Amino acid sequence: MNRVSVDTAGRPPSVDALARELALRHSLPHAVLVDIARRAIANGSLTDVKKLADELAGDLVQSLLREVVNATGVLLHTNLGRAPVASQTSSRASNLELDMATGERGSRQSTVGKLLALLCGAESAIVVNNNAAAVLLVVAALANSRDVAVSRGESVEIGGNFRIPEVTEQSGARLVDVGTTNRTRLRDYKKAIDKRGNDIALVLKVHPSNYKVSGFVEETPVRELATLSVPVAADIGSGLIDNTCPWLETRAPSWLSNEPAARQTLNDGAALVMFSGDKLFGGPQCGVIAGRADLVEACAQHPLARALRPGSTTMLAMQSLALSYLNRTATKEIIFWKMATINVSELRERAKQIVTAIGFGEVCELESIPGAGSAPGATIESAGIVIKGDYLAKLRMYTTPIIARVKDSKTFIDLRTVQPDDDQTLIQALRSLNS
Ligand SMILES: *Cc1c(COP(=O)(O)O)cnc(C)c1O
Questions:
Q1: I want to staple 368 with a disulfide (CB 3.0 to 4.6 A). Which of 73, 148, 248, 348 is the partner?
Q2: Residue 357 forms part of a structural domain
Q3: In CATH, what number is assigned to the domain containing residue 346?
Q4: What is the pTM of this model?
Q5: Are residues 116 and 172 in the same domain?
């Protein structure tokens, strides 16, 4: 091993020798190891080149994208890719843009769009890369070089730098602020529409997903906005399809009671709704635009639509999710709804079995949260395991990383977000803490 150590003349190891030695401990491509060796030699002092190179290689291996077990109790964890979706493993081609009846070029949007439209009670729907893209496209297609009216209370930042004023500006539309930060009434919108010099093409209503204003506040509901002379596009954010949750065997969970839903928002008269695919819808990263056929078509025909279109993996996943909702099999097939509806007594039972298997820790009551800015402030009764000490980093280093939560020097494993298939992996990871 000593061939890469500093030689007696005090020369650093050669890049190639160092890369070859790194290969014994890190399974990374040779070209990557050569790059690491170069950087370590350039930045390390003569004595610690090898240690630095090992660290760089270890960090890189650790940072590679991989499957993890979400034990945080945050159902839609932004750092963990929001809603988990089963991956498609087939290597076959798909009829993504083949019209099966004629054999001619077809549209990737038509069938999935139809299913989604049916699901939301819309005339038509399309899928784009995310909800930010959906809002961008709607404003660009329907209000380019014209004005968009937005309540001052809804001119928000959703996180990850999605800011309504900036998105509007990027779309080539002019933002017209309406009302005040805490109260905006229908007459404020009317005044803005009637004001000389304004050319309002669209009212944009935005659900302030990730925060709550309380006290002397008033917003104008879609039902009232729909009486205005311009179409209303509602960014409902989380993608709850229907607030009665007809796909559940039980009633809609109470923690969803304040979330706007696509079907009801369209029923109330919104011309369009926009929402994320990877929040409460439980799908892959994408955005949906659903509503009036002529407006959805205007979005689909806009040049930006080409830049914002999702690939076949996303379209396939959205199709299978739409079918699960329509078949009322969501709680069996959609991982998000499984996590959301699993009975807490089952979680307690699993926790008991895990504690028995590992021989330490305790079963505890916990509160999960929906996450991803959905239903802010809402909690879901849960159960899991508590272990004295902070094992966050150790669990994260496990072969299949376990992402847990720490509070007051105790490690919490929330089982609501752990899929039952992963209990054995969890047991092995927890046992490894003792070794
Ligand atoms: C989450 C959210 C967005 C951004 O959606 P992405 O799919 O992350 O692009 C936009 N608007 C609202 C109201 C949201 O909740």
A1: 73
A2: yes
A3: 3.90.1150.180
A4: 0.94
A5: yes
- The reported pLDDT for the residue numbered 10 is 66
pLDDT of residue 5: 52
- Same domain flag for 73 and 196: no
Atom of ligand 1 nearest to the CA of 287: 7
Would you say 288 and 116 are in contact if contact means Cβ atoms under 8 Å apart? yes
pLDDT of residue 46: 73
CA 276 to ligand 1: nearest atom: 7
Structural domain range at position 291: 110-333
Same domain, 75 and 31: no
- Regions of the chain with pLDDT less than 70: 1-10
Check residue 9 and give its pLDDT: 58
Q: How many domains does the chain have?
A: 3
Q: Whose CA is nearest to atom 5 of ligand 1?
A: 131
Residue 277 CA: nearest ligand 1 atom is 7
Mutate to test the pocket of ligand 1, among 235, 285, 374 (most ligand atoms within 8 A of CB): 235
